[in-house]
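Request: Show me your protein:
***
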Amino acid sequence: MDTDTSSGATGLTGLSQNEARARLEAEGANEMPAADRRSIGRLALEIARDPTFVLLLAAGCIYLALGDIHEAMLLLSFVVMIVGLTVYEEHKTERALAALRDLTSPRALVMRGGQRVRVAGRDVVRGDLLLIEEGDRVPADAVLIQANDVLVDESLLTGESVPVGKVEWDGLLQVTRPGGDSLPFVFSGTLLTRGQAIAEVIATGARTEIGKIGVALSGAEVELTPLQQETAQVVRRDGGTALSPDQRRGVFPFPAAAGRTAQCRRPGAVLVRNGSRH
């Protein structure tokens, strides 16, 4: 924690160090909740419950047992592909949550006990007075109590590339969702592109707008597309029949039997039945 005794907000003292410490202990750090990483065993169980995976694995093993190495390797390569894609998607989700955590925990300049103090973003608490200026990323959701020609880039939350203007709070307007000009609210992860402001923190961590997104991402369940649902139904309905012993003899003839059948069907082949030549 760095302290700067120069005055930047006349008449504003902010929280005391003891008040800030108490709120940090009561409400938790200003950071995104870490998502529970799925273990290898859990990933393997999810993959094994996929009907398409089970069918490909079973068919590959049958081809391998029948001696058709080429077809077996082709099917088993699809099995490896499914496992690889699942692990890749898991890693991509973890990276997205890590990026959100990085955006929500920049260092912040706050007023504590009448002094300008630079603290880690995770140590910002509700009620802190933020001193923000052009180029600063807002560390928590806050309401502007002083604003001087402020523009904020909220594209992270709204997708709108044009910065929006911000004004001082009139003491009456209720907190709104991100987006819209001439509002007094700034949100965690957004970027001040012009002006200077003093803002009072109203929400931190998972209670911020970006924190709610992170919580939703960490708890999101992947839904199957209609095509995947149809495929799963077909596999469950027809997979057992296709892999039954009688069907395997018709679809996957044993190499020895297949060789004899081919010999019998060669042009010019002679069949002997009951002592007569055909």
User: Anything to note?
Assistant: Confidence is low (pLDDT under 50) at residues 251-275.
